[in-house]
Specification:
Largest sheet: none
Protein name: Heme oxygenase-like protein
Pfam family, one: Haem_oxygenas_2
Distance between the termini: 20 Å
Structural class: mainly alpha
Number of strands: 0
Number of domains: 2
CATH architecture of the largest domain: Up-down Bundle
Order of helices and strands: HHHHHHHHHHHHHH
Oligomer: single chain
Length: 319
């Protein structure tokens, strides 16, 4: 991935450091802005995925970068706790997840895209989503070696579908690349990191935060469950919206596939994955629900931002 432009002094310092061979250094994040915080976290997290063009792979586990990341993660976690509260236990996690994901009181971005969005707005939507969809499923795969028994088997069952059963062009990542091609967008991995705002990066950083820390394995499962359990209706709307705008079968295949697959995944995620995990580790039930609440709230804030910009006649992208 090409390194993005800095959004403040902290991301500028990190980007400057990564352009060199690894060396000893420390950085004080100071009073970092929201944009600077989330771009810096995204840059640091990407070292654990596919890396950055021209950046030495030895930076991945550099003590100075890990110390900085820990301080930024503490700020991010504090923001999340302020937003959704601390993890709290629950007796019946699957039923609680169903209740959480059945709340339709938030802004309906999917409804807008289905019936009102212009082609340019749909392209913007796909631009935001490309940051995750071009590596779809990868953050949740970090949980596999951290689980056992039925929860592990259920997660693997979901991930097998996400990765197309081992067939490259059926991987959801590749299906979304076809959607971007149909929309005339750049399909290069991470091509649009520079133009998406912090509210988009925060959604991606959330799953990396949960995925890279074993202590948050329960939150990562709750995150995935909330994704799967709120996917079918919106993806049907996205597919229909793109067809309304002239999208062909190649362009809508990604959304149509999710309508079918996630209708099955939502039951597996709630009962077989999260339910089994909480039976094996009841002390982690609060973490599962915390992860679900975090993604639902951050998605709501992102939808409010995008719809707000569009209603004002403005772009939802930076620059």
């Amino acid at each position: 991935m090409k390194m993005p432009s800095a959004r403040g002094p902290l991301s500028a310092a990190v980007i400057d450091a990564l352009a060199r061979s690894p060396y000893d250094f420390t950085l004080d994040p100071g009073d970092v802005s929201h944009e600077d915080l989330h771009l810096t976290l995204f840059v640091l997290y990407e070292l654990h995925y596919r890396g950055w063009d021209g950046v030495d792979d030895q930076w991945e586990w550099h003590p100075g970068l890990l110390a900085l990341r820990a301080r930024l993660e503490a700020r991010f976690e504090a923001d999340l706790r302020e937003l959704v509260g601390d993890p709290a236990p629950a007796d019946d996690v699957p039923r609680t997840l169903i209740a959480l994901t059945s709340d339709n009181s938030g802004p309906s971005l999917s409804g807008y895209l289905r019936g009102r969005a212009t082609l340019e707005q749909f392209k913007e939507f796909a631009t935001h989503r490309s940051i995750y969809h071009l590596r779809e499923a990868d953050p949740h795969t970090f949980a596999i070696p951290r689980l056992g028994g039925k929860a592990k088997a259920a997660l693997i069952e979901i991930q097998i579908d996400e990765y197309g059963g081992g067939v490259a062009d059926r991987m959801h990542q590749e299906m979304f690349r076809s959607t971007m091609t149909a929309l005339g967008l750049d399909t290069e991995y991470g091509a649009y990191v520079d133009v998406v705002p912090a509210v988009t990066l925060a959604n991606n950083n959330l799953m990396s935060l949960f995925g890279l820390h074993r202590r948050w394995r329960g939150a990562l499962l709750g995150h995935l469950a909330a994704y799967e359990m709120t996917s079918t209706g919106p993806n049907r709307a996205y597919g229909n919206g793109l067809r309304r705008l002239g999208g062909d079968a190649d362009g809508t295949r990604f959304y149509d596939e999710h309508v079918e697959a996630d209708a099955v995944h939502e039951q597996i995620a709630a009962y077989d994955m999260c339910g089994s995990f909480c039976k094996a580790e009841p002390e982690s039930a609060g973490d599962v629900l915390f992860g679900a609440r975090c993604v639902l709230m951050l998605e709501e804030k992102w939808a409010e931002y995008v719809l707000g910009r569009w209603s004002a006649g403005e772009t939802s992208l930076r620059g």
